[in-house]
Structure formats: structure tokens, C-alpha cells
Amino acid sequence: QVQLQESGPGLVKPSQTLSLTCTVSGDSISSAGYYWNWIRQHPGKGLEWIGHIYYSGSTYYNPSLKSRITISIDTSKNKFSLKLSSVTAADTAVYYCARDLGNYDTTGYPKWGQGTLVTVSS
Amino acid sequence: QSVLTQPPSVSAAPGQKVAISCSGSSSNIGKYYVSWYQQLPGTAPKLLIYGNNIRPSGIPDRFSGSKSGTSATLAITGLQTGDEADYYCGTWDSSLNGGVFGGGTKLTVL
User: Fold this and answer.
1) Are A86 and A104 a contacting pair, CB within 8 Å?
2) What tens digit of pLDDT does each residue of B11-57 get?
3) Do A75 and A85 touch, CB atoms closer than 8 A?
4) Which residues in chain A touch residue B98, judged by CB atoms under 8 angstroms apart?
5) Which of B34, B98, B104 sits opposite A49 (nearest CB)?
């Protein structure tokens, strides 16, 4: 049973870069057909898709965040990562990593990490 | 402002039925499957429905989904107090080339 776990600093200063890692266990991150996603949720608000990566390194990003996002993957360590640059208080949110349905179906996410709260504050 | 539109809140009595709507457009719901999620306070979203109307293993058949055109609906029958949660719809959008969600609906079981 695949499991995902986010890790990274819980506090980031304004203008700095937020860096998070998602460690995948129970399945290979190189499994064909799966996209690995980052999704965030601002306090008391709804879900926002940030972007996803395929094991080949191919990425899609949310257009509203595209200029500040980098998602990368390390298949040797079964991990993928998120970097969000030039953060402001508006980037304070719970960040989730998630795996989609597989078979190249990007319409749903059955597997989620527990989420990690990142606060942007000086 | 979410790409998909949901009512902010719905309520019903225990044992009753409730329906939560999700409205989109031809570039998202009109083109792709819809998923639904339940989020209890302080927890990650849980997939309730995918492929418009398919329940993952372990999801009770009290939960059902449907889609018509550019709208989708989640129906919950036999409401229980434990169903009180936030519910989100989601899918893919071909114009944005990304995942999209509704703003969420808070279900209160009176």
C-alpha cells in the first residue's frame, strides 16, 4: 500500500524559497502511468493544485504559480520535491503531496500525504 | 476564486439525503471525469468518488456521484453525524492544463 510523507521546514521567511520533499513508500515512484502531485490548502480555504511530475521528469504547473515553482523527482531515493520561490504570507498553507489515479488519469487523487503546514513569516 | 463552483454549505437531518452540486465548464467537467473528496477537520482529503460515479474500496454505497454536461453531483443518503465534513469536487482542466477543485461545501448534519 503506497504511502506518502511530506517533510520540510514549517517556517519560511518572506522572499525566501519554500522547499518540501515527499517520500514515497510501498511502491516505486517510477511506476508507469502515475503522476506525483503537490496540492495546497490555505488556512480555512479550499484546495489548490500546484503541479505534478512524471517519473521521466515531465512537469505541469499551475499557471498562477508557474513562474515561482520547480518540481523535481529523484527516482533513486523514491522522492519528489517542491520549491516555491519568493514566498509571501499568501503562501502560508498546508502543503500536501498526492498520487493520482494512475493509467495517466489525472482527474483524481486516491493517495495523499498527511500534509505539512508551512508558515511564511519573519 | 475556484474554477469549479460549489455551494458553501448544505445541511440536513440524520437519516436524510443531501446533494452537493459542482458546476464547471466545457474545459473541465464537460470533458473529464469528476472526483469527490471528504475532508474531516485536521486531516487530508479522502477520495470518495472517482470516474464520476465509482466508489473506491471501503466507501459506503451511501455515497454516490453523477455527472451531466458541465455539472456534477455528490449525493449522500442515510446521513450520519460522522458525515459532517467539508466536501470537494475536482477534475482536470484542459485550458489551464492542470488540476482544479471546487471551493468546498461544508455539510452540517443537524
Assistant:
1) no
2) 999 999 999 999 999 999 999 999 999 999 999 999 999 999 999 99
3) no
4) 49, 51, 60-63
5) B98
